[in-house]
Design goal:
- This protein is an all-alpha fold.
- The chain is built from ten helices and no strands.
C-alpha cells in the first residue's frame, strides 16, 4: 500500500495508526538513504527518526498535489546534511590540494569490469569506507544528483573543494575496485 492523501490527512489529525503506517513506509523508503550517509546502523536510525519528525511536522505545509516520495526524500537528504553541518567542527580537514588538471584527469570515468560484477551491497560497503566528507560529496553528486555549487552550499565548502572531494572519492574507489579485480584475476589463474 502506498501513501495516500487520506493517510497524510489522518497524520495531520494525529491519528496514531496513520502515523505508524507512515513511519513504516518511510523506514522502508528512506533508510537506504540514511545508510549511504552513515557508517553504522545506530546513526542511520537516529537520522531517520529526526527526518521523520521533520516530515511529520511539515505535512501541514504540503499540498495534496506534491509527490510525497520525492518530497520526503528531499527532507531526508537535507536532514542528513544539517546533521553533517552540526558535526563539521569535529571533522578533520583534508589539507591536500590538487591542481585543476589533476581534477579533470580524475573526474574522467573509466569502465571497469569489476564494477559490473559487484553487487549493490559491496559497492555500498566501499562507499562507506571513504573519508566522511568525500563520501558525502560522492553520495550527493553521483547518487542524489546535486551539482557542485549545491553541494558546496549544503556542506559549507567551495565548489572547487567539492570537486576535489569527488575526485578523491573516485580515486579511492578505483583503487579499491582495482584490488578486487586483481584479486578476482588471481583466483582465476
Amino acid at each position: 500500500m502506498d501513501v495516500t492523501s487520506d493517510i497524510l490527512n489522518a497524520c495531520k489529525r494525529d491519528d496514531r495508526r496513520a502515523i505508524q503506517f507512515l513511519y513504516e513506509h518511510c523506514f522502508k523508503k528512506l533508510m537506504p538513504i540514511c545508510f549511504r550517509y552513515h557508517k553504522n546502523e545506530e546513526d542511520a536510525h537516529a537520522s531517520l527518526n529526526i527526518g521523520f519528525m521533520k516530515i511529520l511536522n511539515g505535512l501541514e505545509t504540503v499540498g495534496e498535489d506534491v509527490n510525497f516520495a520525492a518530497w520526503s526524500k528531499r527532507i531526508m537528504v537535507n536532514t542528513l546534511i544539517d546533521e553533517y553541518r552540526k558535526k563539521k567542527n569535529y571533522l578533520s580537514h583534508i589539507s591536500a590540494k590538487e591542481t585543476e588538471r589533476e581534477l579533470d584527469f580524475h573526474a574522467e570515468s573509466t569502465a571497469n569490469e569489476a564494477e559490473s560484477d559487484l553487487g549493490y551491497e559491496t559497492l555500498l560497503k566501499l562507499i562507506k569506507q571513504l573519508p566522511e566528507i568525500s563520501g558525502k560529496v560522492f553520495n550527493l553528486y553521483i547518487i542524489d544528483g546535486f551539482n557542485h555549487k549545491e553541494i558546496g552550499d549544503l556542506l559549507g565548502i567551495s565548489e572547487g573543494t567539492s570537486k576535489w572531494h569527488l575526485s578523491t572519492a573516485r580515486k579511492i574507489l578505483r583503487e579499491k575496485l582495482d584490488k578486487i579485480e586483481n584479486h578476482n584475476q588471481r583466483m582465476v589463474i
